[in-house]
Write a structure and sequence with these properties.
Number of helices: 5
CATH architecture: 3-Layer(aba) Sandwich
Radius of gyration: 13 Å
Strand order of the largest sheet: 3-4-5
Structural class: alpha/beta
Number of strands: 5
Shape: globular
Strand content: 5-15%
CATH superfamily: HAD superfamily/HAD-like
Number of domains: 1
Length: 129
């Protein structure tokens, strides 16, 4: 887990922001990993690649997460480090936020905003943003 992620999630949850995970991994694998890192409780919605008909960069998973959270895409953000994450975000109509701390981050991948460290997300999508 990257430094600052647990604190970031705590800040977002305390601000009553609904959170979801969408990953290309299976829902079972994602749930197991989130549970093992004690992060699962932050995410009422976990959408895996096996929950949607088309993988990233198609928007299906991002849109499914928005639907399950009852949040319109125009009011949501998707944070990812890979170009596929950011393209899925852009295709879905959510705010595409590049996670520069991630190991797949590509400075050339188009996104709306870049978060250099997890804490930057509080000023981008946090309750007071």
């Amino acid at each position: 887990m990257y430094d600052g992620v647990r604190e970031l999630l705590g800040g977002l949850v305390s601000g009553r922001l609904p959170l979801a995970v969408f990953t290309g991994a299976s829902t079972a694998a994602a749930t197991q990993l989130l549970a093992a890192t004690r992060l699962l409780s932050f995410f009422p919605v976990v959408v895996g690649g096996d929950d949607v008909p088309r993988p990233k960069p198609e928007p299906d998973g991002v849109l499914r997460a928005c639907d399950l959270l009852d949040v319109p895409p125009r009011r949501a953000a998707y944070v990812g480090d890979s170009p596929l994450d950011l393209e899925a975000a852009r295709r879905s109509g959510v705010l595409a936020v590049g996670a520069a701390w991630g190991h797949l981050f590509d400075t050339e991948a188009p996104c709306d905003l870049i978060a250099m460290v997890p804490q930057d997300l509080l000023s981008i999508v946090g309750p007071d943003a």
